[in-house]
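Researcher: Structure for this, please.
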Amino acid sequence: MSPAGFQGRSPKSPPNLAITISDADLGEIGYLVIDRTVNGSSSGGIRFTPDVSIEELSSLAMAMTYKWAFLNVPMGGAKAGIFAVPEDLKCDRSELMEAFGRGMKSLVAKGVYFPGIDLGTTLDDLYSIMEGAGKPLVGEQIDGSYATALTVFETIRQVAKFSRKELSGVRVGIEGFGKVASAVAELLAEAGAKIVGVSTIEGLIVSDGGLEVEALLELKNQFGDQLVHQFPSSEVEPPENLYSLDVDLLIPGARPGAIHEKNVDQLKAKWIIPIANAPVTWEAEIRLDEKGILFIPDFVANCGGILSSAMRGDGFDLDDVRYLVATTFAELVYGLLQESALRGESFREFARAVTWQNHLILSDPNIRTVGMSRRLPQLVKDQDWQGVRNRITYRIHRRNPQTNGAIHQSALDRYAELTLGSMIDLLESIKSHA
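Model: Predicted structure, token format:
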């Protein structure tokens, strides 16, 4: 049931736009899916993999819509994918990327779609894509991998806190070991958790006593996905065996729908907190509820990448991202856990309903579904001295992002109020209407 009578979005609802991207010389080379727009704009990364499909991109674009709404950023969700192989087309990688950019030039030029990097693409690729789209990138760009790891880890911390369980000794299985997964593994190891299984496309390695994260990192840097064949004293198992491991926490980090109807009943984990987007099919999500497994959706757990991008664009740095994740983000996640439990609803359904409601508010400022109750807490805050100060310092900071000390902190607090803090206000208004 949706909170306070709000109508949730159907998981099967189609995207607003799904097109094939073609080039006059290279032919069909990829797809672009725009799930929803806010104020006519959408954003999401571009992945580069030969088997990418419209269906996969549609689920990923929907996840992006939820991510932007969860952060209270007025932006819709989109996703693009390149399936063409440069060798087959007798062109180099940068030529293919530029061609893809040319194919969606009009949408980029009008601000309908803002691209980013995703699975299989790099910042160099994005430079080429934007060159082709006629919007060359200027200045330093952001790799949000570490920021994504921060929100994944903080989500784990809040779930453990809510479950009254110490992270020390928690048994963890991780799918994939790229930039985000390896950073999450480091953070978990520092907190005393045991990484008992790691899988890549090449296989799965398991150690009941825990895999040494430093050794995993060294092997990853040398061998990539092949690291599983290099790890000492570990037999390589099929990667799908990860799902049946006896763990407390499973961290999916592969493609959409990796957990589905055929393997969901193998799961022994108590918590599923993803790095990957759309890692569980809708039917499998329902089964997780029936099994009593807590699933935290992607738009909550791994929103750190786009959060850091938005914050950098507003003149904040990685330390500011860390602060916001450890404070306002943590408060919101814990609040959603508490309220969903009080209502006897699954976290995934409740969080989606609240976030979709916020998307509707962002999309149409005339919507007054929650009335003044949502806005009053913010207005009251802004009338006290601290609220007034935060508003003034935030304006100063936007004119000159080099502010420091108390002014910088006050501006950061205002940014927190405007983004995740607004979601906390919405949650409070929903609670008052329950």
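Researcher: Any notable elements?
Model: Confidence is low (pLDDT under 50) at residues 368-376. The longest strand covers residues 27-34.
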